[in-house]
Backbone:
């Protein structure tokens, strides 16, 4: 629970202009995964200018690595992005 809360805070630090949808019955991990999914699918961009999930994954990892987060925090966040990216690959 503590780690899930921390990951959500780290996500908010790097993507501070993103609104997070808290739905009744959803825990913080689900909220984080949905936010990452929206980011990777580029859902906040106009459909004609959307990038592919793999390109968005690369940009996200680069953003995380270049951030001021410590290495442990970076790895935890990259792990979450990788997990969601793998789920997206399975769906397509």
Residues:
């Amino acid at each position: 629970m503590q780690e899930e809360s921390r990951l959500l805070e780290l996500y908010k630090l790097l993507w501070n202009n993103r609104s997070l949808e808290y739905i009744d019955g959803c825990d913080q991990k689900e909220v984080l995964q949905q936010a990452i999914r929206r980011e990777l699918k580029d859902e906040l961009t106009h459909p004609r200018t959307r990038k592919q999930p793999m390109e968005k994954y690369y940009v996200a990892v680069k953003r995380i690595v270049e951030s001021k987060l410590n290495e442990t925090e970076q790895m935890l966040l990259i792990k979450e992005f990788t997990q969601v990216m793998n789920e997206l690959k399975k769906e397509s």
